[in-house]
Specification:
- The structure is a single chain.
- A four-stranded antiparallel sheet has the order 1-2-6-7. Strands 3-4-5 form a three-stranded antiparallel sheet, with helices on one face.
- It has one domain.
- It is of the alpha+beta class.
- It is built from seven helices and seven strands.
- The protein is about 45% helix and about 20% strand.
């Protein structure tokens, strides 16, 4: 979950919803490469946060009983393996992109646990095999993954309310064209802008659903889950303009 504090409680955005927002952002880029790979790239972006661990005990809570932001949770080998298993049913291309994403996320944990090292090494070997079978070079695969990472990053900036104040710029990530992009909101109520402008349209709107909780603490995951089922849902929208 992505958890934002509000004046009267919590705003909750599921990670799967954030991934769908990332796919919306990718859809507005100028497509590149064969159409089947473009669709596979969109699928990889939309589903990269699937297979989340089931809530049991206090998995989704902080020690104080508040909803836990995803950044507070430890690496889950079970979730990573689940994402890879699901990706394989959609083919080697989506598997390659998903593997590259997981490797990027968890490479910094290398040498912390043997199981993580083993997982990362397995991903490197699989990526090499998939590139060979798909007749892709590293540059082609990296270009597609860079868009996936870029959209993931901008989606997180929006969902986590990280847009800087006073029109200041925040770096997003290097795009598939090798350029470094920045995001800003020149005025508090105005549209968001990305520099340089990467999208096909001069302006566009993207959205994500968020649940609104007005209870600050929970006894366990079950109480939190029950509250989320009953919580009002709001659609958050952002207008992006050149």
């Amino acid at each position: 979950m992505i958890v934002n504090h509000t004046p009267d409680g919590w705003q909750i955005i599921y990670q799967q919803a954030h991934a769908l927002l990332a796919a919306q952002l990718a859809w507005h880029w100028q497509p590149f490469g064969p159409s089947d790979r473009w669709v596979g790239l969109l699928a990889a972006i939309a589903q990269h946060d699937d297979e989340q661990r089931p809530w049991d005990g206090h998995y989704s809570l902080t020690p104080a009983g508040a909803p836990a932001n995803f950044t507070m949770k430890e690496f889950s080998l079970e979730q990573a393996q689940g994402v890879m298993k699901a990706a394989r049913f959609q083919g080697r291309w989506r598997s390659l992109l998903t593997s590259m994403h997981l490797h990027t996320l968890y490479e910094g944990l290398r040498q912390e646990q043997k199981v993580i090292d083993t997982f990362l090494t397995e991903q490197e070997a699989q990526q090499k095999q998939w590139r060979r079978e798909l007749k892709l070079n590293k540059k082609e695969a990296q270009q597609a993954y860079d868009l996936m990472h870029w959209c993931d990053r901008l989606s997180l900036i929006l969902c986590r309310q990280e847009l800087p104040e006073m029109g200041r710029e925040l770096e997003i990530y290097e795009g598939p064209d090798g350029q470094c992009y920045h995001v800003s909101r020149p005025t508090a109520e105005g549209p968001v802008t990305v520099t340089p402008w990467p999208f096909r349209e001069q302006q566009l709107t993207v959205s994500v659903e968020a649940s609104q909780l007005r209870q600050l603490q929970f006894a366990d995951d079950q109480e939190l889950a029950a509250a989320l089922r009953e919580a009002p849902v709001e659609t958050l929208r952002w207008e992006l303009a050149r």
